[in-house]
């Protein structure tokens, strides 16, 4: 082989043959990967530490223009002719991104459904990067595909506990159930079927029915899958599906309909924040029996409200409509015995989106799309001879291509599997409960603060409030001011024609003192803005006088 | 705050208040994140090392059933009631996934466009997991969004070097160009525009034209975007776009058309492996001027062949058709001065897919979708008041929602930025050249081996061959036998009505001895299969005799 030196990766590039000195430390995988990663990870951790100190708060001060300048200055040329070397590049760029992060692990970074990841999940994710399994064929991910099948089945059973799968396993102790089921399947099965077929739903044969889930990039992709399956079901009977959702539904419902070539969703007003059964009934009556998909929400983005799922399913069924529930936010309440009642009726949906990168504390992405019966996933069946040729599938190689609309796909399931195993159901429940309790505490604090108006008692972990009487410009201005100064990341919500601040609590470690500090900060910013405006008005008056 | 203990994360769960002893080490971010990650990363690296030793080859032996059993045994219950703790969970599950991986860092794992990631990229990716920026709004990713804009512009300029952007920067030293441009923009701009607007294309205003790119989950999503923009362009003039592609095109072209509600692509036969200009002309003639999108391929999945892009663009333009080039595989040849000529004509496309998780050595995902003018991305414009309200955008907060069809989105760009900076253009070029040279070497070895037939001289890094004269069952059987035994991961390709072995070389460290070992392994497996068949036939004859 000709000798190409890999400039920039090593202090000395001795122009060695492949396998020579210059190649040591190049790759993350193989036997030498961990040794190559060790010093580089040290550099990353040091840069993260330095960046957090440099930032000194929930986000960098200065606003977009200044942050942009600082990143450019630190980063240098994006694609220099000669590389800077691994250590220097990691130090500069990880440091810049850390110093310029809106870090959700900081208690005052609480605007969005943007969670602080668990250390255990972030650590597990390194193995996904290093081994790089790709989830589109078994021979790129032999073990990871088994793990994905196990986790997907288990999480689907959490959503649909009543539905008995072909393997008869239900409840939370699914792995044991799955192993029993496999022994079972071994007894039942002739040659040509295999252990995995009983775990993964085979989209070609529908084998392995019972609750199942697909891994998605988030609620947006999961909602898209919900609409897509409804589109295909309607097409199968020669119809066009109409999506019906509340005004409180996530924007991705609209975007998915557009992407899939469907008519824009029929939007039902939600004056009380949730989709109401009566209003839904009226909307469905108007469709006169045309195929419809009702999209309900368990945890709206603006307020965390949960639609009355059981009643909505009843109304939809009465009209022959399908139901997809976007539980991207609220879904993980299922881990908690105390809180799961808030999702009553979820189990009767035709499909459910839920994310573990919101409540669930995973690094992005960790989305899921669950169905009560894996056979429902058959419309996603897809063949590409190099990945799932019929003779390979018949010979026992699992067919994975129907498990996603993506082809190459990262094993996001690994970090999820490690987290669930590390914390257990009780540990996950504890974090969910703690986070929701913090929201109640913040709501009480806001309600007790003169000059602030609380929107409602929090349904999940979102607290919405504003200056008494409302003042849209003030709300928007205070939010931007806190961002510019690097003091806090607050969200915003337009509700009932007015603008509100939104605090989405997703940090299970938030302390009472953090919540008090947040309220005080907003109070001070309001006061300052009001004073500033008064001064400006006075100046105008004086100017007029002069 | 009520005290919820986080069972399973710690040996002792003292039921502390938030912020107490039980919480130390919980989160990956914040000031304490790096200290929490350090020991857990040590556990991960040890488990990766152990798993590689246990596997002892490119993939685990035993085939799907046995691998599945081993993973289940190691994993235990997916969701136990009480957690096993972070260390135990990482050790068990990372170990199982490593032991059961098809590791592309092993030279005999060479079936798919499935690359061994660089250690520097995998290390950088940890920062993405720990800080968890989400790329759907500035206030979730202040620095990461700037970095993404910089990298996207730079890579787009690599694809479209002729096109002068509004900032006048072209060529490879883009960061310097961008900074100049910004100084420029500062001089030109009034209040309300900002530094970032000159880097990110603003989909609302079209500001910041010139080549631009979006980050995607891979070639599949990028191809989908190419079709989507063509669909919208046709709709804008009241038409329906027809996709026209070669029989050699990636399956995602067909799947995207289905997803988007378009007619199935018109498929042009490619008897010589590439889409031929004459045949394309005939196909376009048949459409009689209806809006068309031609999808060409720069690096087919089966053989790595590159369509004659310049000629195809000429034919398409002559028919008023748009051109999308799927350069998911071949795109990174642009880094190499010696090899980029193979992509002549790419720069005249309307849009281009290219991945850095193939040639580019990134952990999945690292896809890009490039356009010669960022204004072309406007149809992706999308508004969600909580993420990009007009008054926020007017006040200078960058609008990121039009940068993807996803909402929550991991900063995959960080690892890419670190890699480009670490290796430089020359370093990337060296790896690409080295990998392509290895393919030529393997092809020569195969051509010189009695009993093997080489399909063609490799166009990129894919080598296709079969037993002389062809024997589909033998090809499929040998491939599966090598998989079952954990000896090698070979791919397969159906070409000209016959089945071939496919070796996709993506490991820049593959040595001549590895290539020789691979050829020998296939030879032996063939011999064994032929002997086995002969024995079986003899047995049948004997049985008939008995």
From TrEMBL, chains A, B:
Keyword NAD in annotation: no
SUPFAM superfamilies referenced in this protein's UniProt entry, alphabetically: PLP-dependent transferases
A Pfam family recorded for this sequence: Pyridoxal_deC
UniProt region (Disordered), positions on chain: 184-203
Key words of the record: Aminotransferase, Decarboxylase, Lyase, Pyridoxal phosphate, Transferase
Keyword Plastid listed: no
Cofactors demanded by this protein: pyridoxal 5'-phosphate
Domain of life: Bacteria
Molecular function GO labels: transaminase activity
InterPro entries: PyrdxlP-dep_de-COase, PyrdxlP-dep_Trfase, PyrdxlP-dep_Trfase_major, PyrdxlP-dep_Trfase_small
PANTHER family membership: CYSTEINE SULFINIC ACID DECARBOXYLASE (PTHR45677:SF8), GLUTAMATE DECARBOXYLASE-RELATED (PTHR45677)
Protein family: Belongs to the group II decarboxylase family.
Name of the featured protein: Aminotransferase class V-fold PLP-dependent enzyme
Lineage: Bacteria, Bacillati, Actinomycetota, Actinomycetes, Kitasatosporales
């Amino acid at each position: 082989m000709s000798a190409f030196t890999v400039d920039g990766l090593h202090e000395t590039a001795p122009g060695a043959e492949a396998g020579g000195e210059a190649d040591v430390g190049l790759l993350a995988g193989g036997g030498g990967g961990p040794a190559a990663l060790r010093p580089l990870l040290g550099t990353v951790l040091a840069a993260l530490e330095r960046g957090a100190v440099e930032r000194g708060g929930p986000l960098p001060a200065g606003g977009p223009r200044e942050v942009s300048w600082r990143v450019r200055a630190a980063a240098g040329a994006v694609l220099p002719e000669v590389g800077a070397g691994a250590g220097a590049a990691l130090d500069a760029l990880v440091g810049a991104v850390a110093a310029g992060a809106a870090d959700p692990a900081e208690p005052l970074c609480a605007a969005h459904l943007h969670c602080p990841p668990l250390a255990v999940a972030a650590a597990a994710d390194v193995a996904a990067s290093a081994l790089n399994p790709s989830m589109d064929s078994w021979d790129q991910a032999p073990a990871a595909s088994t793990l994905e099948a196990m986790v997907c089945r288990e999480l689907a059973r959490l959503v649909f506990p009543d539905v008995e799968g072909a393997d008869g396993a239900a409840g939370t102790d699914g792995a044991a159930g799955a192993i029993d089921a496999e022994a079972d399947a071994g007894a039942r099965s002739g040659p040509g079927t295999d252990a995995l077929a009983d775990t993964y739903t085979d989209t070609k044969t529908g084998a392995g029915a019972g609750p199942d889930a697909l891994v998605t990039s988030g609620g947006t992709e999961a909602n898209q899958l919900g609409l897509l399956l409804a589109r295909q079901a309607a097409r199968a009977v020669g119809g066009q599906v109409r999506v019906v959702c509340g005004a409180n539904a996530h924007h991705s419902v609209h975007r998915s309909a557009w992407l899939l070539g469907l008519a824009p969703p029929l939007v039902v007003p939600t004056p009380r924040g949730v989709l109401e059964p009566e209003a839904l009934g009226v909307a469905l009556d108007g469709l006169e029996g045309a195929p419809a998909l009702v999209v309900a929400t368990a945890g709206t983005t603006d307020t965390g409200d949960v639609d009355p799922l059981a009643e909505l399913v009843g109304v939809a069924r009465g009209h022959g409509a399908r139901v997809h529930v976007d539980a991207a936010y609220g879904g993980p309440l299922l881990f908690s015995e105390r809180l799961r009642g808030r999702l009553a009726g979820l189990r009767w949906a035709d499909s459910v989106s839920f994310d573990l990168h919101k409540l669930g504390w995973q690094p992005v992405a960790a989305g899921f799309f669950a169905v009560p019966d894996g056979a429902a996933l058959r419309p996603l069946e897809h063949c590409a001879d190099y990945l799932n040729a019929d003779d390979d599938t018949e010979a026992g190689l699992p067919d994975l291509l129907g498990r996603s609309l993506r082809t190459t796909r990262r094993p996001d399931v690994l970090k999820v599997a490690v987290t669930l195993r590390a914390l257990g159901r009780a540990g996950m429940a504890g974090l969910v409960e703690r986070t929701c309790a913090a929201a109640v505490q913040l709501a009480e604090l806001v309600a007790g603060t003169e000059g602030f108006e609380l929107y409602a008692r929090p349904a999940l972990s979102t607290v919405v409030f504003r200056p008494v009487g409302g003042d849209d410009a003030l709300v928007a201005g205070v939010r931007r001011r806190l961002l510019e100064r690097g003091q806090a990341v607050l969200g915003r919500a337009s509700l009932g024609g007015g603008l509100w601040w939104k605090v989405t609590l997703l940090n299970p470690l938030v302390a009472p003192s953090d919540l008090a500090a947040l309220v005080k900060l907003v109070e001070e910013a309001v006061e300052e803005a009001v004073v500033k405006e008064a001064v400006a008005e006075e100046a105008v008056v004086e100017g007029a006088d002069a």
